[in-house]
Amino acid sequence: MKLSEKLAKVDRNGPAIAREDRPRTPSAWGTLKRQIRGRVLAEIGPKLYRERHTQAELRAVVRDALDDVLNGEDVRVTPSTRKAFVEEIASDILGYGPLDPFLADPSVTEIMCNAHDEVWVERGGLIEKTEAGFTDEEHYRAVIDKIVTGVGRRLDESSPMVDARLPDGSRVNAIVPPLATHAPVLTVRKFRAEPYHVKDLINLGSFSMELALFLECCVRGKQNVIVSGGTGTGKTTLLNVVSSFIPDDERIVTIEDAAELRLMQPHVVGLESRPPNAEGRGEITIRDLVRNALRMRPDRIVVGEARGGEALDMLQAMNTGHEGSLTTIHANSPRDTLSRLETMVLMSGLDLPVRAIREQIASGIDLIVHLSRMVDGQRRVTEVAEIQGMEGDVMVLQTLFDYDYRAGKVKWTGLRPHLLDELQARGVELPPPFGRVSAPASGRGSRRRAS
Asked: Is 147 helix (H, G, I), strand (E, B) or coil?
């Protein structure tokens, strides 16, 4: 059967590009797209690699080549079908196929592909299924491979899962069989073209102006801060906002698995971990980077997420002159964050007494800012707790801000921050009402002295 007959047949079945019609003729549609894509690439492939074009010029070249192929086959289809067909093929060659509309949609924050014909997205914190889909399994894998190879990573049976990122900074995770039992799974977490600022999170209700002023003073006063929360609660977004409080005259070293932080300060050095190569060698872990960062004369160390033995190196840095460090941790509450830290330190492989670990945590960490995802999908700071020190074998936590579910916002508890004296020693004055509280909250525990 000629190409023109195949296309005409698909066209007679209804809108050839409509997602709901594809399952009826998946084989014909997939074969048709592969044939046309192959012919177009054979015609314009040398131009794409030899000549430099803008994105608009590349799309024009692809459209012209597609028109030539379709005209050469004497294809007779409706203008709307022809236009949609050209756009879809162009998107496959120059972009990421059916993912492109969601990547361009600012309301979409996450794209989740469970199979080639099952695509979910997150909008406004709520997950919904879409009518989009890939042509077939081969098309799906081709898009995944295009994303992964674009950042020098690989995805196959010997390395069946990978973290990568798109040119716009969006984070990508892909996992394929045999680890994914039914089909390859692709997850894309998008980031805004313009990073969130403090005023944006206040307007969204993530936290209050009162809390923003308090966090700014704590960061400028070199307090060590951990942002905790579950998956998708906005930890990285809040870490980026909190990092913006760091003064411009300080040297900042960021350490991440996949570069997501976008700090606006002039003196920022970004480090990114590296997975092992095909021979299983060459891996550079977050822990390796934390150790190396200590030799780079940092004023601040910002770790995208602590999830293993690097927690010990972070604590060592915080306790040996690198105050003001920031990181995120997966945890369900501030108290759980302390337990997670203990576990991660034990993952370092050193046989340390539990009390010694807790003393390191109590003297190294100042604040835990906890985020939660509400039933309506909104992310909000629900608790800010201060580590006051040790009482026996127990780390003492004091809640400074708590979420008022009736009022729908986080409020100061009225307790005097234990770190107030340390901030004042560093020349940072907390604004009212925090600075007006004179009575100490407790005499328990001890903290490191301000340098």
From this structure: helix
CA distance 199 to 360: 35
187 membership: H or E segment, kind and range: strand 185-189
DSSP 96: -
**Residues 283, 275 contacting (CB under 8 angstroms):** yes
Whether residue 367 contacts residue 386, with contact meaning beta carbons closer than 8 Å, is answered with yes
Q: How confident is the model at residue 385 (pLDDT cuts 50, 70, 90)?
A: very high
pLDDT at 24: 38
Q: For the residues of 284-335, what is the DSSP string, one character each?
A: B-HHHHHHHHTTS--SEEEES---STHHHHHHHHHTTT--S-EEEEE-SSHH
The closest of 61, 53, 133, 70 to 97, measured between CA atoms, is 133
User: What CA–CA distance (Å, rounded) separates 236 from 328?
Assistant: 7
Residue 20: band (very low, low, confident or very high) from pLDDT cuts 50, 70, 90: very low
Q: Could you give the 3-state DSSP secondary structure of residue 82? A: helix
| The predicted structure's pLDDT at residue 18 | 38
Q: In which element (H, E) is residue 174 found? A: strand 171-175
What confidence score (pLDDT) does residue 366 get?
95
Stretch 148-177: mean pLDDT, rounded?
A: 84
Q: Which of 204, 205, 161 is nearest to 180 (CA)?
A: 161
The chain-wide mean pLDDT, for the chain, equals: 83
Report the pLDDT averaged over residues 410-434.
Answer: 87
What's the Cα-to-Cα distance from 363 to each of 86, 200, 380, 389, rounded to whole Å? 62, 33, 27, 7
- The DSSP output letter for 149 is H
Q: How do the residues of the chain divide into helix, strand and coil, expressed in percent and rounded to 5?
A: 40, 20, 40
**Rounded distance between C-alpha atoms, residue 236 and residue 369, angstroms:** 12
CB 418 within 8 A of CB 386: yes
The DSSP bridge pattern shows strands 300-303 and 326-330 to be parallel
Q: Which helix (H) or strand (E) holds 50?
A: helix 26-50
Laid out side by side, the sheet with 108-115 consists of 126-129, 118-123, 108-115, 185-189, 171-175, 161-165
Which are the contacts of 192, defined by CB distance < 8 A and separation ≥ 6? 106
Who has greater pLDDT, 273 or 36? 273
Q: Cα separation of 380 and 204, whole Å?
A: 9
Instruction: Read off the tokens for 377.
Output: 């999908």
Token readout for 371 is 């985020």
